[in-house]
Structures are given as C-alpha cells and as structure tokens.
Specification:
CofE-like fold, three-stranded antiparallel sheet, five-stranded mixed sheet, 60s Ribosomal Protein L30, Chain: A, globular, homodimer, 6 helices
C-alpha cells in the first residue's frame, strides 16, 4: 500500500543567480532514498539567470517577451496569449511570470528544465549520496476547466508516464486508460503544500513505490507532438 | 505549515447498486474532521445504477452511448471522440468507461456528481458525526500533454477554487495567478495512492488547512462556460 507524506521545505533563503539549489535543499531537509523533490520553476529561473528587466510602469511591457519565447500563437483574447513555447509547452503568456519576482522584472522559463532537474538530482546524489527524483513544476491553466494546476516542466530520475498498457484491471481485464501522467500528478500534489502566497518553492513527496523512479524526461515524454494533437 | 498524509482505503467490498458508500468507507477507516475523502467515479456509477449493457463482442458497441451522453462533439479521430458531456465536461468518449466493470457492461458518468458527493458528505456527518470534504474523481486526458490525470467531477464541503486574487505574493505584490483548482489537485494527489490497476476506489487526504473546506460545487465553479472558453 502506497502512503504518501507530502511536506514543504521551510527555511530556504531567497534564491539568486548561481545559487546551488541542491545544496540549499539538503541543508534544509534530510532527504532519504526514493524521495521526490519538487522545485518550482521560479527559483530555477532565478538561479539560472532567466530574470529580465521590464518597464514596471507599463503593464504590457512583458508582451514582446511572450512573442519572443513563443514559436506558435494558438489563441489571443485581449491581453491573454495562449502559445506554444520554444520548449513545446502550450500555456498562457509563454510561461513568463511577474509574481514572486522583483517589481520591474519578469521570470522566463528555464532553457531546459529537464537538464535543470538532472543537475539537481545528480548533485544531491553526488554530494549527499541520496537517490531522489526531481521535478521542476510550473502553474498552467487548461481549456474547459477554470483554475490553474501545477504541472511538470522538467524531471529527472522519476517516471514521467506510468504506462499501464497490458496491465490487468481489478477484474482481470486489460486496462483502457493506460498512460498516467505521473509527474503532473506529483506536481499538483506538491502544490497543495507549497501554496502560491507563501513563497515556499520546494516540497517533498515521500513514500512512493520504487517503480516511480526511472529515467525519462518531460520534454520527450509529456509534450505531445503537434501532429498527434487534436487541439493545435 | 501544511503537511499532508495521503492514503488509500483498503478493504472496501465490491460495490453494487444501492450500496451505502458512506457507511462502507466509515467501516473501513476512522475519519477525522477535516479529512478530504476522494471517491472514484466508477463506484458511484455502480452504486447509482449507471451501468449499462453493451455487446461484449463488438469493440465499438459503446459508441452510440457516447453520442447519447454528449451535447457537442469537439473532435473525432478514428474511434476517439472528444465531446462535451451533458454535465459540461469535455473529455474522451463522454466519460464512459469499460475498465473495472464486468465484461459486457459500461459505466456512464453519474447524473450529478456534486449531488453524489453531497449525499456521502451528509451521511458521514449525520451518521458518524465527522465533518469531511468529499470529491468524486475521474480520469481525463488533456490537450497538448500526453497522459491522463485525475480531476474532480463532483464535490461537497471542499473549496473547488482557491481564489487568491488580491492576496500578496511572497514579495508583497498582488498575485497574478489567482485561481487554483484545488479539487483537481486533490483528485490528482489521491490518484497517486489509488492506482489504476489495484482497484482501490477511495483515498483520504489528511492535514489540509481549514480554508480548504467550504461550500461550492464542481459543476458551477469548475466548468468553464463555452463563451469564456478559447478552445471550444
């Protein structure tokens, strides 16, 4: 029986360019093998220098950045742009975020969040000897349903998709619903303890089964090819 | 600090028409005030008699049901139909499910999953004196990203949307991202301990803050009006 313990990592300092997030996490919490460490995109962007200046007096000054970070605009309505980013994510405003950054600045998405996750995972393993999975999470809206949820934009050491094709269901029939987006469910679960207003950027999910761990990454395994997509 | 304990409810019997799910849950687990009880749609459909016979020898025999349960077809590709159900949900095959039901039958969505959730919540409170939130969950795909996640199709006693508009972020600025789909994040978190192949239909999320509880329902608060939707 899987029983999960989900808790935020308190006491992290404000993150700046070049900071060693893996070491900061390990200073703040005693990780154990098999933990899933969820890190919000915002502090990755800060550590990787993806903070850019914008005109604080102009509420639309980040809009040229949205165009720059996008490869395809899907929808516009008023100031809202839904686009496909150069990373392949479809989201509002190309994932550019003005909250929890200094006034007059905006946070762009990391260039390669899977790589960011790998670096943190490798550093935790190399320096602290603990084998964890790492997920970089961000907050996306979705069509048809109000509200935002957190999803994974990068990962390392954790199965992105649990492929249950061929697995019998509880009545012994082969399952129809086969590919569970594990990393997105983990990102959403972690958001529950981070909270948007408290500024806690890291959470731990402890107790998951061994089959959650593995090699895969979000960009290859989650992003649906435009040719497979009915809504692009 | 929010710290969550998420665990499945083991030992529930197979559910049949007319069964008292609330009593069965309370027999299987000792609930405490503030628990969120997540129940998968499948057993609600079974208890409410939403199981219909189909031709087991014809893999497409549930397709007329999909049309019957839909008010609008959004996309078709091969055998896949993405439609808006009469409840307002946009999903594949109108939420009709052939896994974890007897061969030769299909499970339709409950008529009103918010009402189903209210009944369970009220019965747990009335008979067992415990104040809980209840979520009815189902497994939906989504555009742009591979894999499925669990979302809420009904709820009672739990905030559907956490509205953070006007809340300052950690740096004291007003938040941009404002409406968190709490019930969907809770449904995804619960799925992590239920698993699709184990047939565990109920999970508990314990430890959430008091502000998660409240009156609201999925159909009014999550389903986005077609006129507000950029992808319909």
């Amino acid at each position: 029986m899987t029983r999960l313990d989900i808790f935020p990592v308190d006491g992290l300092p404000e993150i700046g360019r070049g900071d060693d997030i893996a070491a900061m996490i390990c200073d703040a919490v005693e990780l154990v093998d098999g933990d899933i460490v969820i890190v919000t995109q915002k502090i990755i962007s800060k550590a990787e220098g993806k903070i850019v200046e914008i005109d604080a007096t102009d509420p639309l000054s980040h809009k040229p950045l949205v165009e720059q970070e996008s490869v395809r605009i899907l929808r516009r309505r008023g100031e809202l742009i839904i686009s496909e980013t150069k990373h392949g994510f479809v989201c509002a405003n190309a994932g550019i975020d003005l909250s929890n950054v200094e006034r007059g600045t905006a946070a762009l998405l990391p260039d390669d969040s899977d790589r960011s996750a790998r670096r943190i995972r490798d550093r935790i393993r190399g320096r602290f000897g603990v084998g964890v999975g790492v997920i970089i999470s961000d907050t996306f809206g979705r069509p048809w349903r109000r509200g935002v949820t957190d999803v994974a934009i990068g990962s390392a050491g954790v199965q992105v998709i649990l492929d249950l094709r061929g697995t019998p269901d509880a009545l012994g029939r082969e399952m129809q619903v086969t590919e569970v987006a594990l990393v997105d469910e983990l990102a959403s679960a972690a958001e529950l303890v981070m909270g948007k207003s408290t500024g806690i950027p890291v959470a731990i999910i402890r107790g998951g089964p061994a089959e959650w761990l593995g090699e895969s990454n979000v960009r290859e395994d989650i992003v649906r090819a435009p040719s497979d997509d009915l809504f692009r």
